[in-house]
């Protein structure tokens, strides 16, 4: 089997409402690039990466000279072809490598008639549990979906519990003043006795503020406190001053950083992202290191559609030391580009696909529909808030959004049809 072609299609997927975070917002939609790798036997492997628009499409198709004629089973050679650490100083291709690796594993599974998890050692679980992943949200274009108050947050979480069965709740913070967010987080935890909680301000807090915040929630049933501040040394200082385990998906995202954390611990739980780490296989390797040194492991979400969600499920299926529920933005999506529509939750978990390869296929009509929506709406700046056009984030941040009621985002369209 040899690769004969590679294609990329960028899509815009509408969300229930714009999601706010410490660096800005997702403006009511995700921009994702779907990658197709075609082999000489007619099979097509699927990959996915975040954002990029036309630049992502150009970057993907620019890999043709590397990939045409390559055996997709030679994934280790692929790593050095696309992500040689010296060459990558001039062109960081980690996300591109991840999308191509997904597609190559998909091709291998389809050729042999087995799911990807069988290629990766076989599954140790058939479902992967997920946290609810809650955000403060701007209202959608029709005025619905806003989450600004503790009452709105709890009401939304209760709807998700009733619909999907979540028993772990993650709140994305770093938007409003820390004291306000702490009270919202405490209200969330107190509304669901027996459930576990986790908080993530995306590194927006200074070290001392992060310590103060941690001490204000230590009595709750916390899984961990994720990226309360920025940098390994800042995380180390917070860790020395709280009983809550610390987690990260920002400052341990490669093996050199993982080695530094093993040598001088700053983080207790590593959130493995199949895109940030360059594929499923590097995440499995990292999980093995974490198993050896007794670090916790969870699966991180980077705004995926069904293709990358499938990679997260296959990863979760084969990692024995997956000790926490995974994250997923998935329930915020209004639709998906995979055949059959969105993968369903049951009891707060999603079943691991057992079909050949990744176990998902493209819905070509949906792909065309949301590619056209991208052409209509274009990209959006991840690191800007549509309600605060002159604001930009600092680390640590001190310029917080006002939690008081407002008219919401400006009239410019952020959602889509």
Give a brief rundown of this model.
By secondary structure, the chain is an alpha/beta fold. It is 33% helix and 17% strand. It has 2 domains: 3-117 and 365-377, 2-Layer Sandwich (Enolase-like, domain 1); 121-358, Enolase-like C-terminal domain (TIM Barrel, Alpha-Beta Barrel), CATH 3.20.20.
Structure notes:
- The chain has 13 helices and 14 strands.
- It has helices at residues 54-61, 64-67, 75-83, 94-112, 116-119, 150-164, 178-191, 207-215, 232-239, 255-263, 280-292, 306-318, 364-377; strands at 3-14, 19-21, 24-26, 29-39, 44-50, 127-129, 134-135, 168-172, 196-200, 222-226, 246-248, 269-272, 296-299, 349-351.
- The protein has two domains: 3-117 and 365-377, 2-Layer Sandwich (Enolase-like, domain 1), CATH 3.30.390; 121-358, TIM Barrel (Alpha-Beta Barrel), CATH 3.20.20.120.
- A seven-stranded parallel sheet has the order 7-8-9-10-11-12-13.
- The protein is globular, with a radius of gyration of 21 Å.
- Helix 3 packs antiparallel against helix 4.
- The mean pLDDT is 93.
- It is of the alpha/beta class.
- Its EC number is 4.2.1.40.
- One of its GO terms (molecular function) is glucarate dehydratase activity.
- Residues 398-417 are annotated as: Disordered.
- InterPro entries: DgoD-like, Enolase-like_C_sf, Enolase-like_N, Enolase_C-like, Mandel_Rmase/mucon_lact_enz_CS, Mandelate_racemase_C, Mandelate_racemase_N_dom.
């Amino acid at each position: 089997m040899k690769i004969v072609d590679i294609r990329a299609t960028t899509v815009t997927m509408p969300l229930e409402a714009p999601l706010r975070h410490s660096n800005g917002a997702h403006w009511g939609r995700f921009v994702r690039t779907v990658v197709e790798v075609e082999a000489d036997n007619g099979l097509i492997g699927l990959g996915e990466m975040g954002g990029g628009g036309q630049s992502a499409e150009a970057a993907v198709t620019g890999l043709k000279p590397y990939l045409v004629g390559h055996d997709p089973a030679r994934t280790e050679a692929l790593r050095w072809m696309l992500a040689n650490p010296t060459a990558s100083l001039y062109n960081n291709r980690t996300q591109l490598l991840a999308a191509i690796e997904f597609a190559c594993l998909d091709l291998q599974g389809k050729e042999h008639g087995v799911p990807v998890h069988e290629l990766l050692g076989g599954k140790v679980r058939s479902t992967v549990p997920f946290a609810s992943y809650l955000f403060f949200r701007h209202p959608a274009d029709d005025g619905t979906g806003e989450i600004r108050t503790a009452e709105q947050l709890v009401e939304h979480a209760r709807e998700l519990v009733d619909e999907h069965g979540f028993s772990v709740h993650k709140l994305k913070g770093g938007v409003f003043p820390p004291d306000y967010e702490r009270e919202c987080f405490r209200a969330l935890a107190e509304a669901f006795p027996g459930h576990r909680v986790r908080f993530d301000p995306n590194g927006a807090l200074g070290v001392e503020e992060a310590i103060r915040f941690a001490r204000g929630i230590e009595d709750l049933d916390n899984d961990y406190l994720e990226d309360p501040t920025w940098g390994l040394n800042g995380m180390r200082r917070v860790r020395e001053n709280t009983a809550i385990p610390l987690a990260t998906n920002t400052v341990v995202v490669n093996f050199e950083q993982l080695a530094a954390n093993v040598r001088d611990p700053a983080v207790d739980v590593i959130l493995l992202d199949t895109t940030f780490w360059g594929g499923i296989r590097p995440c499995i390797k990292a999980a093995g290191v974490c198993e050896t040194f007794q670090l916790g492991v969870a699966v991180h979400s980077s705004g995926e559609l069904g293709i990358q969600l499938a990679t997260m499920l296959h990863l979760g299926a084969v990692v024995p030391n997956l000790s926490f529920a995974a994250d997923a933005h998935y329930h915020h999506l209004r639709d998906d580009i995979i055949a059959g529509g969105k993968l369903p939750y049951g009891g707060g978990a999603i079943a691991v696909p057992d079909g050949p390869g990744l176990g998902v296929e493209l819905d070509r009509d949906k792909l065309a529909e949301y590619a056209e929506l991208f052409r209509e709406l274009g990209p959006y700046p991840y690191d800007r808030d549509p309600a605060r056009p002159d604001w930009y984030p600092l680390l640590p941040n001190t310029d917080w959004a006002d939690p008081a009621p407002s008219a919401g985002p400006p009239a410019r369209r952020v959602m889509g049809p």
